[in-house]
Design a protein that fits this description.
Layout (H helix, E strand, L loop, with lengths): L9 H5 L15 H9 L12 H12 L20 E5 L19 E2 L7 E2 L9 H5 L5 E5 L11 H34 L5 H20 L8
Antiparallel strand pairs: 1-4, 2-3
Bound molecules: iron/sulfur cluster (3 copies).
The site of one iron/sulfur cluster has 14 residues, from helix 4.
């Protein structure tokens, strides 16, 4: 267990994280990593999108000796800053598995229709790449307001706030859908099969995320 100053709360840790929600740190999202740091269970070098600025800021806040901590933990994948996802529309099968995993709702499309990425909202987090069953999503270099690689935390503040808001809206929307699906199931208007399908999809995505390595990802 690592020491954490009593005066430091989860909010102040979360405020230093970029809000890319990419899960590279090994946690479900930035807030989850912040909670683990707050509990003294995680080291400060697990956030590739945050880079050196975040590592140093976390070190100062949590009173860690930054010089003694490697730039990036061994088990964390690198992040391709200033890249966006690109869907090969000739290969997309319209399965919609990329929609629920996108933290910023940057993908548009309906079931059995071709899907496309709104580049301006894409952070390049790669979660859709992991979720896609036919590997038709790749990354391309493009700066956007969502993935701009600011050198300092102060410069990044506005971007982080927008990404947090987008993620909060995304989570609320999908929580509501889950509630509606459950209500429909209870009232007998939906089969248990569709709920089981969603659980199986989430389990599959989590398993893929855990086994992902940088070499597996398109560059
Ligand atoms: S940006 Fe990614 S790696 Fe960094 S804290 Fe958030 S989820 Fe973890
Ligand atoms: S489109 Fe893909 S890479 Fe872009 S933010 Fe959404 S999940 Fe991440
Ligand atoms: S997961 Fe892949 S195949 Fe399915 S809709 Fe998204 S881009 Fe198309």
């Amino acid at each position: 267990m690592l020491a954490v100053p009593h005066s430091v709360g989860i909010d102040s840790i979360d405020a230093l994280l970029p809000q890319t929600q990419c899960q590279r740190c090994g946690y479900a999202d930035c807030r989850d990593y912040a909670a683990s740091l707050h509990a003294g269970e995680a080291e400060i070098n697990r956030c590739p999108p945050g880079g050196e600025a975040t590592r140093v800021a976390l070190g100062e806040l949590l009173q860690r000796d930054v010089s003694a901590i490697p730039a990036l933990a061994d088990d964390v994948d690198a992040y391709a800053a200033e890249h966006v996802a690109l869907i090969d529309e000739t290969a997309c099968i319209g399965c919609a598995k990329c929609l629920p995993v996108c933290p910023t709702d940057a993908i548009v499309g309906a079931a059995k229709r071709i899907h496309t990425v709104i580049a301006e909202a894409c952070t390049g987090c790669e979660l859709c790449i992991i979720a896609c069953p036919v590997d038709c999503i790749s990354l391309r270099a493009l700066q956007t307001p969502a993935n701009w690689n600011y050198a300092t935390l102060a410069a990044r503040t506005g971007q982080s706030m927008q990404l947090r808001d987008a993620y909060t809206a995304h989570k609320s929307r999908y929580a509501l859908r889950a509630e509606e699906a459950l209500s429909a199931m209870i009232s007998g208007t939906a089969s248990t099969e569709s709920v089981t399908d969603k659980k199986a999809l989430l389990a599959e995505i989590l398993a893929k995320a855990k086994t992902r390595t940088t070499k597996d990802l398109p560059r």
